[in-house]
Specification:
Layout (H helix, E strand, L loop, with lengths): L1 E4 L4 E2 L55 E5 L24 H16 L2 H4 L11 H8 L2 E13 L6 E11 L6 E11 L5 E3 L4 E2 H12 L2 H20 L1 H25 L1
Antiparallel strand pairs: 1-3, 1-8, 2-6, 4-5, 5-6, 6-7
Amino acid sequence: MKYKYKQIILSVTAVVMVVGLAVFSTKPTNAGKANESDIAVADNTATGSEENENKEPESTLATEPSIEVTDPLAASESAIDVKEPEVKEFKANNNQEVTDLVTEYLLAKLDCSEERLKEVVDDMSKIDITDISRRTEKIESYDSIEVYTIDGPTEGSYIAVSYEKLKISGIKTSSSGLYIFYVKPASDGKLKICFSDIEEAEADEFNRLVSENEDITALSNKVEEEFAKEIEEDEDLLNYYNELNSINEESSSEESSDEE
């Protein structure tokens, strides 16, 4: 069974505070339909009404779609060979090549550069520059970037977890963020962030490796605690994310309408 990404990158920025797990979901969709987005949107947005004006963004485990079923093949055809992950120390920047790749992706997003993005992602058809620009227009920088890398589900692949501080224009407090990336060799042999179709077994193994990794869970919990404190102490930061969540909700509704 083939899977197409809606979001291979599961963001755990404070936009939605999706923390703890990166989970690939499987939703039926029309074959050949491309879905572009790289920021996960949970159903926890503010409406902008007086009642929700100062409502704290809710925290939730990530179960929103990352990939979608597009080619229903026999289950036997989806089987892939997976390797036993090597035991490596979970620490910041423990794989320099992956660290440089993820850092360049984040900077390319801020620059909204298609030229830079095509060097670090494996399928540009899934990239919507207009949407990226809208979501990052008030982000001035990603600071103090740390990338934690573990072995991925297939030979030569990696799961990269980035922790960073987001500096947002006009807001004093920086916001803690966490992203989970799937990195693997592309058709040209270079490591890139995966947006392309993958097999069901590969997605399942990715989910298992992330969900069973205690270090990733601990780091996610750390980010959640930091973010809760940040929005509690800075009302401007809270209002910013409530506003952005509302925009994300509208975008998600429009996308659903387009699919109907």
